[in-house]
Amino acid sequence: MTRFARWTALAAASALLAAGCSGGSSDDGRGGLSWGRCKPTADGPAPSSDWQCATLKVPLDWSKPDGETIGLALIRAKARGDDRVGSLLFNFGGPGASGVSMMPSYAPTVSRLRERYDLVSWDPRGVGASEGVRCRGDKEIQAAESVDVTPDTPAEERAYFQDAADFGKGCQKDAGKLMAHVSTADSARDMDRIREVLGDKKMHYFGISYGTELGGTYAHLFPKSVGRMALDAVVDPGADAVGHAKNQARGFQRALNGYLESTGQDPAEGSRKIADLLRRIDARPLPTGTPARKLTQTLAATGIILPLYSKDSWPTLTSALDAAERGDGSELLALADGYNERDPSGRYGTTTHAQRVISCLDDRQRPTAATTKKLLPDFEKISPVFGSFLGWDTAGWCHDWPVPGQHDTPEVSAPGAAPVLVVGNTGDPATPYEGARRMADELGKGVGVMLTWRGEGHGAYGSGSDCVDSTVDAYLLDGTVPKDGKVCS
Asked: What is the pTM of this model?
């Protein structure tokens, strides 16, 4: 079962350049790094010679710093200019996104920042080349696409929860001891070790989507080490599992309303039309031109979600919906495959596997089926199109999970930290704007500095606003902190 909506900055994911790690690491006693050429992977060629890769050894269990270790894959490109500030560490979200793969493709967006920073990213523990977790095989993933994630009958409900339990068992079998040590707090401690071995006195950081929660957690744990930290597409630190699902229902419905208005449709009427299409597909999945694959209701909804991440993709959504209304599910299936990281040969990526082991270790809340059924009317009121999917997801995502969760909400208060720039986009579908205001408030007075962009899409930086880009660049390059509450329109 794939989570219906995730926080990953998917706009960047569409242009991935896969990169392998050299596997080098030194034994100098302080966990130093031996940088070398990045290797190609089965997914693509190595990046250019500008990029270097290394492996850093860190404790599996941070409460036992001298115990068993795991390897973290890192990638960097050195600063071009002479007036170097230090390293700028990036996390692209998920949780579960591979920084080693995404950093080279994102580098053109932050080319100005490279004048004064080494651009650095990593695969967090449990992700990609850093002891990445794979919970089931490609054939099992495709078979699970037929599971109805908005069950209408007792049989469908049993199948839904059995699939969830099976997924967790597969994760535990693959991850072993790592399963209990992939939390956001674990990765924040890894970040501080990365800072140390890179030789930086302060952590300069750019977190996107889930990377904002990771940045907030770091600031809480290491407030005196915070340097220049920018958080874009901000996850609400005050929302629990149900709260996050409601936030996303609200955010994606807002984005859908904006899309419908752009096509001249009344949002309420357009949403009813799409909801009706999904109900028809639930009763009778659509052909796709591939005999072995039908467009199910879940795949159709996933296909609608993907183009809402970026306004540039709205015409693609129009074409796919028109085709579905004609009885052709091929275009929505292609969009769903992009979201689910399925390539033409039938191989699937594992971002969602890592996301699940990380988020289920973080989140203590485990809503039951009975709780979810009581909540469904609220979800459907928030979003007639996406509400039921996100409502049921709250019960299925961590159902019968082998490892208990750690907290209801993350702690991000950071008294004494340097100012942290929090960037909120009023039209963000995956991480609604309200979360940015909450993050700025919870970081604390004098720490959280709010920048608002009145735009569309997931994230603000690099999305077409000169005001946003110049404000973030001035902060990261020169340390110029904008006035709290600045608005870019």
From this structure: 0.93
Name residue, tokens 């996850």.
Answer: 235
Active site residues: 209, 428, 458
**Helical residues (DSSP H) of 412-465, grouped into ranges:** 434-443
Residue 71: how many other CB atoms lie within 10 Å: 18
**CA angle, corner 295, sides to 291 and 296, nearest 5?**
125
Determine how β-strand 203-208 pairs with β-strand 226-232.
parallel
For residue 407, which amino acid is it?
H
Instruction: List, in sequence order, the alpha helices (H) in 145-240.
Output: 154-175, 184-198, 210-221
What's the distance, CA 141 to chain centroid? 20
* Spatial distance between the Cα atoms of 306 and 5, rounded to a whole number of angstroms: 9
> In the structure encoding, which two tokens stand for residue 311, read together?
């306004």
Tens digit of each residue's pLDDT, the chain (489 residues): 345 555 555 443 443 333 344 444 433 333 479 999 998 865 678 899 999 999 999 999 999 999 999 999 999 999 999 999 999 999 999 999 999 999 999 999 999 999 999 999 999 999 999 999 999 999 999 999 999 999 999 999 999 999 999 999 999 999 999 999 999 999 999 999 999 999 999 999 999 999 999 999 999 999 999 999 999 999 999 999 999 999 999 999 999 999 999 999 999 999 999 999 999 999 999 999 999 899 999 999 999 999 999 999 999 999 999 999 999 999 999 999 999 999 999 999 999 999 999 999 999 999 999 999 999 999 999 999 999 999 999 999 999 999 999 999 999 999 999 999 999 999 999 999 999 999 999 999 999 999 999 999 999 999 999 999 999 999 999 999 999 999 999
Name the amino acid, one letter, at 9: A
